[in-house]
Specification:
heterodimer; A: alpha+beta; five-stranded antiparallel sheet; about 40% strand; B: about 575 residues; alpha/beta; six-stranded parallel sheet; binds thiamine diphosphate; binds magnesium ion
């Protein structure tokens, strides 16, 4: 089972490696990890996507909480999370019917063309993981030259709205 | 305005933290500290290897309950502390270890004697720090002590670049620890405690399973009071020895791989298991799905990660075990008649436990070679009213000490339980002896282990720390040999110790007293001589070479599945 964990940490030297070595040292999986400063510069926010059964996820959240630099750990279950991922794709396509077809598909996925060259195209896609996965499947037949994915960022929804 | 150096700030803060003793070893990166050290009241003990500095601080901490302190130089000095830190980390011992570091501008340059000790020790410390600005030094040192000694205790490392120690600061601003993300929970949840008591008072076959947490929390007396009030048998882990008096009828002794028959049977058959400050280690549980399989499990621990980690728990109680026991005792007082009725109500269980006690007692045959168990029993007999502190090395010596010594006091037993560190016993004994110069401190050693830190004989002689090292000399890495005998067809590959030094001469070379016993009738006089000698002593006791530790639960099997003698 996939789980999304949001972690607030003190923005201190070495904190990322503490989290990473906790996962590797205890044999937990990290599928993706994103980190950035929050509006308070002394605090960073991390979104970790991991998988495991209930016991493992419980251990992960407890072990994260145990780290001195970790301020808050929230497991974001599917119903309460707002999650997005972004991917940048570079295609090698000349102008021609192939390119037109590609542009149409990109539109279907609400992608944005960031750079349009003679022989290449750079596109940005943002959305839920499932949408990104679906888009990548559909776009696979076009020669994807390069790709960069952010991994998931997530926030808890306002609980009132649930 | 008066200027003060980083080294002086450190020494002042140590003083304010009440640090009386530092175990250490100098080097280029920490010369500034040593330069100012004589101006301050804390006593420094110069060890002969940095690993021993950390073990000594650890022995000091276990015996006193205070936070132990060690200080070493950068690079190799720092890396030599790793085993000591891992040992303390596994057993939750409060330490603050200071390491020198190359000057901040050189960090990351592969400078002379540089090691990324913060990176290296991240997984074997409770937390660690690199001090990057002299203004942060005081706060960090205070935070280090706070973290080490609170919650579930553990070792904290503080890395001190040379320019921080040498640098000057106009004046000290008293800065306290400020840790947003650290707030251990001490108070057990009253509702959970109430539920736990209800379950306990309905139990037909209850057992207390007590670990090192009860010793660390200084809760042994309360545990003893509760167990006696309810007449519930108590088994302790290796780390919990001393938390309940073993001369009490309710004592089951130690459980687990080399536990007693009665302890392992009682836990297996129990219907309610009350785990206090214990963490269901694999050496305790054996095959997990058979461990107390029919019991409701109540688990009291200050560390939430310990709960339901290896074994599913029915009633978790996160908190200081002392606080939880207080609240349990409180509940008993309000229902005194119920308590009395209960305490008298499970005689059948106590009778069954007594039968197990008589069935397979810990035993050995003493013939014309000295049996190691006999030596441990003799040590116990000769020191009964001396309130000794006993440390051990690792291996058979450790297990025989655990089995055949009668533990009645907490904080009198120093052993590397979680990591199983050979070479721990002598430096740990040294640290305890520093704390208690008047008490008898004994290291029950093996011929292999003692060679891992025997250089510390120089330290004990230098400071006249009258530690007694009793070597159970079987000429083998005995515990490994035992596994080879039982599970590898007696293939004694690399476990013979036939090039050991003459331990009597070794003691003498360091200026200690060396003694030897080779026949059973020599054991008592030699031990007596050792215990009355005013200085450090090494006693080489030539014991039966192929004696085994029994009972033994083969790794991964149910603990009721014991190989008996
Ligand atoms: C530092 C370290 N290295 C290796 C081991 C593995 N080990 C466990 S017990 C043991 C044998 C110890 O021999 P000795 O000190 O003579 O004790 P005995 O078992 O013979 O009493 C060894 C090698 C260990 N526990 N620690
Ligand atoms: Mg041996």
């Amino acid at each position: 089972m996939k789980h999304v964990i949001s972690v607030m940490v003190e923005n201190e030297f070495g904190v990322l490696s503490r989290i990473a070595s906790l996962f590797s040292g205890r044999g937990f999986n990290i599928e993706s990890l994103t980190v950035a400063e929050t509006e308070d510069k002394s605090i960073s926010s991390m979104t970790i996507v991991t998988h495991g059964d209930e016991n493992i996820i419980e251990q992960i959240t407890k072990q994260l909480n145990k780290l001195i630099n970790v301020i808050k750990v929230v497991e974001l279950t599917e119903s309460v999370q707002m999650a997005r991922e972004m991917v940048l794709l570079k295609f090698a396509v000349n102008s021609g019917p192939k390119r037109l077809e590609l542009l149409r598909l990109i539109e279907v996925y609400q992608g944005r063309v960031l750079e349009l060259g003679v022989r290449s195209l750079i596109v940005e896609l943002t959305g839920e993981r499932a949408k990104i996965e679906a888009a990548l499947d559909v776009l696979a037949p076009f020669a994807i030259k390069d790709m960069s994915r952010t991994g998931m960022v997530a926030l808890a929804r306002d609980s009132q709205k649930n | 305005m008066k200027e003060i150096s980083g080294a002086q700030i450190l020494l002042e803060v140590l003083q304010e933290q009440g640090v009386e003793v530092v175990f250490g070893y100098p080097g280029g990166a920490v010369i500034n500290f040593y330069d100012h050290l004589p101006d301050y009241s804390c006593r420094h003990f110069l060890v002969r290897h940095e690993q021993a500095a950390v073990h000594a601080a650890d022995g000091y901490a276990r015996a006193t309950g205070k936070t132990g302190v060690a200080l070493v130089t950068s690079g190799p000095g720092a890396t030599n502390t790793v085993t000591g830190l891992a040992t303390a980390s596994m057993d939750s011992i409060p330490l603050v270890v200071f390491t020198g570091q190359v000057p901040t501008p050189l960090i990351g340059n592969d400078a002379f004697q540089e090691a990324d000790i913060v990176g290296i020790t991240r997984p074997c410390t409770k937390h660690n720090f690199l001090v990057k600005r002299i203004e942060d030094l005081e706060r960090i040192v205070n935070e280090a002590f706070h973290i080490a000694g609170s919650g579930r205790p553990g070792p904290v490392l503080v890395d001190l670049p040379k320019d921080i120690l040498a640098g000057k600061c106009p004046k000290r601003k008293a800065v306290k620890a400020s840790l947003k993300g650290y707030n251990p929970n001490y108070a057990g949840h009253p509702g959970q405690i109430q539920r736990a008591m209800e379950v306990i008072l309905k139990a037909k076959k209850p057992v207390f399973y007590v670990g090192g947490g009860v010793v660390l929390a200084d809760a042994a007396a309360r545990l003893t009071e509760l167990a006696r009030a309810l007449q519930i048998p108590v088994t302790t882990t290796l780390m919990g020895l001393g938390a309940f008096p073993e001369d009490d009828q309710l004592s089951l002794g130690m459980l687990g791989m080399h536990g007693t028959y009665r302890a392992n049977m009682a836990v297996t058959e129990s219907d309610v298991l009350v785990a206090c400050g214990a963490r269901f280690d694999d050496r305790v549980t054996g095959r997990v799905d058979t461990f107390a399989a029919d019991a409701k499990i109540i688990h009291v621990d200050i560390d939430p990660t310990s709960i339901s980690k290896n074994v599913d728990v029915d009633i978790p109680i996160v908190g200081d075990v002392g606080d939880v026991l207080d609240k349990m005792l409180e509940l008993l007082k309000t229902s005194e008649t119920e308590t009395k009725a209960y305490a008298g109500g499970h005689d059948e269980w106590l009778a069954e436990v007594a039968r197990w006690r008589d069935q397979h007692k810990l035993s050995y045959q003493q013939d014309d070679v000295i049996k190691p168990q006999f030596v441990v029993e003799k040590i116990g007999e000769l020191t009964r009213d001396k309130n000794p502190i006993v440390s051990t090395e690792v291996g058979q010596n450790q297990m025989w000490a655990a089995q055949f010594f009668t533990f009645t006091q907490p904080r009198s037993w120093l052993t590397s339980g979680g990591l199983g560190t050979m070479g721990y016993g002598l430096p740990a004994a040294m640290g305890a002896q520093v704390a208690f110069p008047e008490r008898l401190v004994i290291d029950i050693a093996g011929d292999g282990s003692i060679q891992m830190n025997s250089q510390e004989l120089a330290t004990v002689v230098q400071y006249n720390l009258p530690v007694k090292v009793i070597i159970l000399n079987n000429g083998y890495l005995g515990m490994v040999r035992q596994w080879q005998e039982l599970f590898f067809d007696k293939h004694y590959s690399s476990t013979t110790m036939n090039h050991a030094p003459d331990f009597v001469k070794l003691a003498e070379a360091y200026g200690a007293l060396g003694l030897r016993a080779q026949r059973p009738d020599e054991v008592e006089p030699v031990l007596k001589q050792a215990f009355t000698h005013p200085g450090p002593v090494v006693v080489d006791i030539v014991v039966a070479a192929e004696e085994n530790v029994y009972p033994m639960v083969p790794a991964g099997e149910a603990i009721s599945n014991m190989l008996l003698v």
